[in-house]
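Changelog-adjacent note: as of this version, every example in the card shows the full chain rather than a window. The one below runs 274 residues end to end.
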Amino acid sequence: MTSVAPVPRPIGSAETGAIAGFAGSALAIAEMEARKLARDPTELVSRAIQPVLWLIVFGEVFTRTRAIPTGALSYLEFMAPGVLAQGVLFTAIFYGIAVIWERDLGIIHKQLASPAPRTSLVLGKAMAAGIRALPQAIIIFLLAALLGLRLEIGAYPLTAVLALVLLGAATFATFSLIVACIVKTRERFMGIGQLLTMPLFFASNAIYPLELMPAWLRAVARVNPLTYLVDGLRAEMIAGATSRFGVLTDLGVLFMLFTALVLLAARLYPGLAR
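Full-length structure tokens:
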């Protein structure tokens, strides 16, 4: 009898297959969420109304009063990146309620029964939240241009703004997912979501400089991830603006927080189905 020697597998093929499977699962979840958005574009319009009102009403009024010193920038220029960050926050922070709906419809149970890693499921939903935030960024950019703001237009600043919007939305959406995994009901989630949004927004540099804050609020703002999102957006979005912490630092803080939240959410995600 002639024995057939086993064919050696290429080194690293298993690892490559695992990475491809992980990425494929995450992209499948993101694509599913993006299709939901395409079927109901009215959500984009409704979520864009509040940032538009902030810019046109609040921003225009405070620009005329000159009550808040913003250096070489007009108050509207100072505020526009903060309004964009607010739109990202408000879109992402309530993302968890959609996950609770999916649990009630049995979708979560089907996802958990699949061989897809839990981390890839969470990552896919975070990517979908970033996709949802992009139309708001486009709307605010167009409105800022119509209002005559000095915008940075170029490959690098636009790419940096895109990265910050995607990473910021993914970070807050993953935090929202963790809250949903803990509270598990829509009523509790809505209460906690409304409780978190305004403190995160006002305890940041979105609508006034850190220098105007009392010491205790400035300390809170320094650990607020929205502060770093606004800081990076302002530096890359507005001509003549500078970053207080450095754009790479802003991206690094958001990325490290996002990584920690994804790992925590992956541990809690199976508990949502119970």
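Structural remarks: Residues 24-273 form one domain.
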